[in-house]
Design brief:
GO molecular function, one term: gluconokinase activity
Protein name: gluconokinase
Number of helices: 20
Catalytic activity: D-gluconate + ATP = 6-phospho-D-gluconate + ADP + H(+)
CATH architecture of the largest domain: Alpha-Beta Complex
Strand order of the largest sheet: 1-2-3-6-4-5
Structural class: alpha/beta
Radius of gyration: 26 Å
GO biological process, one term: carbohydrate metabolic process
Number of strands: 15
Oligomer: single chain
Number of domains: 3
CATH class of the largest domain: Alpha Beta
Shape: elongated
Pathway: Carbohydrate acid metabolism
Distance between the termini: 75 Å
Helix content: 40-55%
Amino acid sequence: MVSHNSLIEELKNPEFYPHPVQSPIEVLQTHISYIFLTGDYAYKLKKPLDLGFLDFSSLEKRRFFCQQELELNQPIAPDIYLDVLTITQQEETLALNGNGKVVEYILKMRQFPQSTLLSEMEKAGTLTESLLERLGKKVARFHQKTKTNDYIREFGKPETIEAAINENYQQTEKYIGLTQEETKFKATKAFTDRFFQENYALLKQRQTNHSIRECHGDLHLKNICYWQDKIQLFDRIEFNEPFRFVDVMYDVAFTVMDLEFRKRADLGNIFLNHYLEYTGDWEGVQVLPLYLSRQAYVRAKVNSLMLDDSNVTEEVKEKAKAKASQYYDLAWYYTQPQQGRFWMMSGLSGSGKSTVAREMAKQENAIHLRSDAVRKHLAGIDLEASGDETIYRPEMTEKTYERLLEIGILLASQGWKVILDAKYDRQGLREAVITEAESDNIPLEIIHCYAPMEVLRDRVSQRTGDISDATPNLLAEQQANAEPFTEKEQAYVRTINTHA
């Protein structure tokens, strides 16, 4: 048998490959694989490990999971995933897809520049807000298309999710005092214990409403690239069904957590709000604290496991130890109670409400609820489709504002900051929000945006790529029907001249 170390040395040799190679070959290492960068192609070799949550211990298992990885990732990253190849041995010679005995399997991928990874773009300061908006839509569309069935939904049982999270705690107890504090370990575990006790019905609802799907499972920035003018999701989990058959919010939480770990909560907020806007899954925000903490904890575990790998250098181990501690702290932070609050936007179309709301959402890490999105989800039409007159009838407008308030109260009462973004030009609509906020002791501020009428007309007529259907000819009617703030409302109002 050829040793794994011998294979690694052979794969570092440019002469091993039947195509031109960029020398020296760069080798990347994760806790479960090696990746060899040869120039045009990258080759992924799985480590012969059994870590409990994955088992690559035999040649046949590595063959199976190489094939699984190819089949799961080709549909979402066809430009990257190419083939599964054999490494063969004939006498003393090893070859790629050669003659002789098969001694290993390896995944062949198209190599893309490491600078196109979102993780590298974040470090370089080139990760833009518009790219995160596109990513939110990309993940939303991915989740809407990915499959679900009775078998997959079984993995959404609260008991199954709880057992998986508790397994993480069991596997990392030995790192208490080394990479994590005992008090925070206990507090984090206590939070998840309470969450399962208090939110059993919610988790069952997520299971029955098709929120448990065949997701990505590992959707952090190192597994997303922006290459060939496309956002490409790759390295979808192939080795563990419970990691892949999960709530869609499990995937979303990984990306949000990774951005927040990198001190870019603003970008995480943009991604989250665009995802929610395209899916309409605002109720899913209720399970985010559980999954945010879980994802941070998993990254802590992954870094902790590197401390036990004899193939990892001491320098790498020290960096992994420091990162693990940071992730454990973040996992604990997500379990801490927060104070919910409301901002109610108010103003005519084109007054800058949504622009101001987006900026506030980034600054406050708030959930941004746009009436345009809520209305179209209620009507069952795509956000990018134009709505006809039926979705703007008074009864639909009433349902839209009721739904806005319903979601807002649901989330704010659980500690989320929420921005209700609509015209709120009628006293009755505003009073409903004020009454609920006062009843639930939720802090409230009304943000009134205005600009001269000619500016509003110009802004509305020049809109492109926005989900709003407002047109300039509606403005006069809106202005005529708008009701001034009452004396009681004035106490909540902050006015912003968006043309100043």
